[in-house]
Amino acid sequence: MLEHDGYLVAQGSTRSNHPAAPPDAGSLRVFPDSGYLWVEGSNSTDVSDFATRAYYRIYEQLRARHPGLLLELCNDGGRMMDFGSAAHGDYFSATDTYDPLSNRRAFFDASHVLPPAMLESYVADWPTPRLENFRYLLRSGMLGWFSLMLDTRRWTLEERADARVQFALYRTQLRPLIRGADLYHVSDRPDGVHWDGIEYYSASLGRGVLFAFRGSGIDEPSHRFPLRGLAPARRYRLRFHDLGAIADRLESGAALMGPGVTVSLPFPLSSELVFIEPIT
Q1: Computed from CA positions of residues 178, 183, 189, 193, in that sequence, does the dihedral angle turn out positive or negative?
Q2: How far is CA 95 from the centre of its chain?
Q3: pTM for this prediction
Q4: How do strand 119-123 and strand 91-93 relate by DSSP bridges?
């Protein structure tokens, strides 16, 4: 794979042989920024247009010469996440901050307009005093393209065992939904205090999942998520991955899309996966 990072599209040029329009006299400003020399001028828009087109041509040539190469778009901390870049790369590094809340916020925002399978979250070190917090950490990066960026040798034996379960679940059950299901934002934007959730459901695959996250608030052990994309007249089996059979139930589509499904978690900064299957 190849990752491009940093300031990749120039906003100005000191070169006189550049094909862009020349700057107005005295408008050029050259200054250092994060270890780079940066240029701005009255012709910045024109320079950026030429630079962007050249940037796309680099990706087009790489794709033609190396069709198996994965192209990660990590442009200036994910701030250049646009349709032009999406058409030329494979996936975006959605944010340069890697804690669970930042990952979910970046995913929540970008998944309104970009395919969720293109949205990468780096999962980094974060305090996990309980196993529930550990799952919360991992699942906050499993909404789209999951990348692990930490030293797993520091995990406890219990965390190692649970990580194997979560990774297998991601590969076999979550990733097909991320690729092919419809995505629904079934909560407000994550704020880290209140509950938040993302739903995937695919009628063609015949299944879906609700990612439910409890924030740091201590006064809301339960939350109700109205689901979407279901058939009101059909009945659905809800399978709670962590809570198990004690919480599993059958509900009508009308009830799930009306009042919704209630998820209860005893600990703050924890999570649950609720799998949704229609009853034939």
Answers
A1: negative
A2: 9
A3: 0.91
A4: parallel
Whole-Å CA distances, 193 to 65, 187, 262: 48, 13, 18
Q: Which residues contact 66 (CB under 8 A, 6 or more apart)?
A: none
Do 76 and 7 touch, CB atoms closer than 8 A?
yes
Tokens 């087109």 correspond to what residue? 53
The topology (CATH level 3) of 182-278 is Immunoglobulin-like (2.60.40)
- How far apart CA 121 and CA 105 sit, in angstroms, is 11
Write the pLDDT tens digit of every residue in 25-76: 999 999 998 788 889 999 999 998 998 899 899 999 999 999 999 999 886 6
CATH number of 2-180: 3.20.20.70
Count of helices and strands (H, E) across the chain: 7, 15
The full set of domain ranges for the chain reads 2-180, 182-278
Residue 262 in tokens: 């209630």
Q: Do domains 2-180 and 182-278 have the same CATH topology?
A: no
Determine phi and psi for 38, rounding to 5 degrees: -120, 145
User: What is the C-alpha to C-alpha distance for residues 73 and 9, in angstroms, rounded to an integer?
Assistant: 13
Q: How far apart are CA 9 and CA 58, in angstroms?
A: 12
